[in-house]
Amino acid sequence: MLDHNYFWGMHTFWWFVWVLLFFWVYATPYDIPGQRRKKEAPMDVLKKRYASGEIKQDEYLQIKKDLEAGGK
Question: What are the residue boundaries of the structural domains of the chain, listed by start?
Fold first, then answer.
């Protein structure tokens, strides 16, 4: 006869592993290495730099003009 306790023990173990994996992937707030992310557009980076005071208005306008000219 088969030992049914062994079957249920392994079955329960694998359910536990899958639940932990699911929780780790979807519920942890940390960045996962190798995770794909949408890259920021150059104009968005420029706006952030200007908003933070990293660059002045004249520099912002010049870079914006260069970015818009490069895209055409």
Answer: 4-70
